[in-house]
Amino acid sequence: MIIPQDVINRLNTDFSVKVVSSPGLIADIQRRQHARTQQLVAKGLPGLPTKTAITPIAMFQPSKPAQVSPFALLHSIGRITTPQVPNLADLSSTWAIYRYIWAFDIHGNGSGLPLRLADAAREIDFHQKTLLSDEVGMGMANYIMTNYFRTTSAVDVSLALKTPSWHVIQQGSASPDYLFYDDPSKTTFVVECKGNQSSYPATIQQLQRGTEQVPSILFTDGRRSVSIVIGTCMLSQDTRVYVVDPESQVPDEYEDKDDYYGKSERIGPSQWRVTNDELFESDSRLFSRAKLLMYAGSELEALAQLSPDVRKYWEGHARKPSEITELETSQGVFEGVTDSFRTFDGHTISLYRGLLKELRNQFLVPLETPEQRQEYSKQHIAPPESYSSQFKEKGFLVSKTEKTTGYGIQSVCHDGSVMQLSIA
Fold it and tell me: How many CB atoms lie within 10 A of CB 108?
């Protein structure tokens, strides 16, 4: 039986997660890479393209204890798993939240103790456990990128590969999960997300696999992308997040790095080349806006952000939202949609997903001509400073909400999104 106050207290508690990136971790991954290569050689199979020059992330040396509330993690899952295109987005943004509001354990006095799953969540069948691990792994990776790398824009790699204007070349069948594009610094992070509930050796195996999947992206103007593999290991006693940087490697035949980055040919395994940097930047902005609008229930408006060569795949699938409503918070006014359902024991769970009103209005500027669209796509649109200044220490601000009936909790992110849950 759901006890609303207990659920909200659990979701609002700051638990500790240990974020690790160390020379010892790198050595363990490289040993696993060597063992994997030996296995393939023994079977007469060619080795897989792998990043062997792996380095720790400086900010996580020594290991850093991160304070994570389960509700911020659920907000992060909802944001990162929302597609930029109509694809049952209402379910993509909400089902994981409904499914996992019960999944986290509360123990002792709560705050500051290790984040861990409830026993019931650890005892579900194998397939559901794998799905939970994958979803939490993606959400935790987005949480790390949001809190520590301060990124606000995420692009699904599957969509990037369908964007011919970028001229993205992928070599090999494996690909990473997301591109995080930091608009102000024009930095692109290529991120592979992993998650399991098994053991540290299982995490090492996942991270080793990640070094096969995460490529480097090369730009004609010489900018570098940053490849990151993030693995989340949820054990019975705690949760640990492992972060590594598989560095980009210049092929030996290119002694002159300027010559290497200036070419527009197909080069090396596990490498992409973007030959139109300007279109990459503008499309990354538009994809990010579409993802935020989709999260807030504005499917038609999200679709309008996409370029015609991408939009054509999904035209006719977008739906008008049931109702766009405002939500006033101490951080600002948001516009979005509410979904709700009734539990078997008679409670009503409602979930509001929204976008900062000022930001949403800037995304919805009418574009009548290709020239207007091109100019609009070049603009860096971000939440106003009065909003952004509230997020000095955390990318997500979580608090209980005052409800006339029932219990509520709210999470606001520095990217301009909000999620509010109420149980009555």
Answer: 8
| Contact by Cβ (8 Å): 217, 274 | yes
Mode of pairing for the β-strands spanning 407-413 and 396-401: antiparallel
60: helix, strand or coil: helix
CA distance 237 to 347: 31
| Alpha carbon 224 to its chain's center | 20
Return the CA Rg of the chain. Answer: 22
The overall longest dimension of the chain from CA atoms, in Å, is 69
CA distance 361 to 381: 11
Comparison of pLDDT for 177 and 361, the residue scoring more? 361
Angle 34-38-44 from CA coordinates, rounded to 5°: 145
CA angle 97–102–107, rounded 5-degree value: 130
Q: What is the pTM of this model?
A: 0.88
- How confident is the model at residue 265, as a pLDDT? 34
Cα 75 to its chain centre, rounded Å, is: 10
